[in-house]
């Protein structure tokens, strides 16, 4: 009896140690898989300036919807138990975007940064992402450089780029008979990029660009430029301005009675532009849209959820943020970790069909290609409900919508 | 030739906005000695007020043209009574900073309430077509803006030169101290004059509503050009503000037409030239004289 007691104690102690070790092993293994035990999504965009309505604070709502959907889908099996969103306002300035991105990755432990409108700001964040080896998915910036000479392993372009807009609108309008063009563009990086892309697309499709007119940026008086653009009697006037400048241009274009003289083609348009100017002023205008809320029942259902939370219909940027966040979380689920390199391997080459991407595919240059839509703005009498502004003229298949992989991209 | 005429009318139409708003700025500076940096924000408020009136109360453009200046007059009275007045005795820089701060607040309040992508505005009835002058088609609205601002400037001119009220205001503008010595209660005229200046900015805003994007930021660029206008015309000079307003509109239009890269620079080159050769502005009187 006396000799057995210590043996029992030893056995109990050994079991206890093993049990403790087992318990202790759990969290330490998880901590190895998840940096700081949670997934942090950084939303870096314009929270107060010109692109606030286009993406802005409502993109946080869209990302939260993705988090909710992820949790609902995987329930207890979800590997990411705690998911947080951190936001920052980059005021469309590349230097602020650079600082905020570093802060997000280093101090707030962001595993990924989403959105980042304004091309120069997005390029700054791509550089930070590359240096920190953390992920960045661009949604609202349209520069082709992100998947061209500035491409890197950690940066993805999810929604659109200037070449896609030009290809979609430029080629389609020429094919429909709008062969002679005048292009008016704001004289800064985006405008110059758009002018180049559109000129290539129009001439490539057999049309001619009679003149390309540069304007100051920002600018509120376009009357003279409109007179100039019309002086060669083009069939189409292409405007590459965005936001407030676009609205200025279209108001003055209509004021000058140009609606009946030349077809208006808009380079980059968000549904908020149509909403803020009023549908009748844009009626008949052609543009390319990466996504439309009322395309089909799936989009409509998602948009209804978004409307209930925000009181407004989503732009393509909101849906893009949702899709990027959701696919990121799916990739984390598949990888079982938030380690950027492991998640990246899950994303690369992935074929995606969701509310935002139809026939989507993550290409080797990290350009996400998908079906996009050539649309015409409805006339006032065709509008049946609020925000019902776009008529889909054609679906441009993913394979044709984007430029091929750039030779400049070396990861 | 036809293009030149079109550019001219477009320049005069743009100048109409500058002239009206600069007139308000000049009157305020003349009587109060206040450089009102919030003028651009008040111009924006005028446009936003027109858009909100149309959206909520279905008040049309022509009615808004009468109502909004009255509303902005009240805004001006409030601004002067509650804020500007208390800093008048101090260095003019204080009121400059105050109005600068005010404009930031006004812009952000509008941004918060109405977002940044702008408010819709229907084209006013009867203003959608074109008028033909000797075979040259001109947008009706541009011609209207041009004529209407000339008319308003004319009315203000008559008001200031031919009426007793105008004479008092001018006396206060020219020399407030001597006017006081002659028994004029300068302080009594300060509030309505400030309100009147703001009302003119609001009127320019209403006229801009069908023509330009109605956003919280619309006054930002505008106020910079406005200051160029006032400096070119001569700070505080009423005739100078109007003439320089139209002149700047023309310079901008011709610049855009014939040397687009230099269109905006041209205005400031003109300003620099005027300051170099006539420091008091084209119509301003030299202080040493």
- In what range is the share of β-strand residues of chain A? 15-25%
Element-by-element helix/strand order of chain A: HEHEHEHEEHEHEHEHEHHEHHHEEEEEH
> In which range does the helix fraction of chain B lie?
over 70%
Described by strand count, sense and barrel closure, the largest sheet of chain A is: 5 strands, parallel
Structure description:
The complex is a heterodimer of chains A (411) and B (289). Chain A is of the alpha/beta class and 411 residues long. Helix content of chain A is 44%, strand content 18%. Chain A has two domains: 200 residues, Rossmann fold, CATH 3.40.50.2300; 156 residues, Rossmann fold, CATH 3.40.50.2300. Chain A is built from 14 helices and 15 strands. In chain A, a hairpin with a 5-residue loop joins strand 12 and strand 13. In chain A, helix 3 packs parallel to helix 4 and helix 5 packs parallel to helix 6. The mean pLDDT of chain B is 89. Chain B has a two-stranded antiparallel sheet with strand order 1-2. Classes of the chains: A alpha/beta (411), B mainly alpha (289). At the A-B interface, strand 7, helix 7, helix 8 and helix 9 of A face helix 1, helix 9 and helix 10 of B.
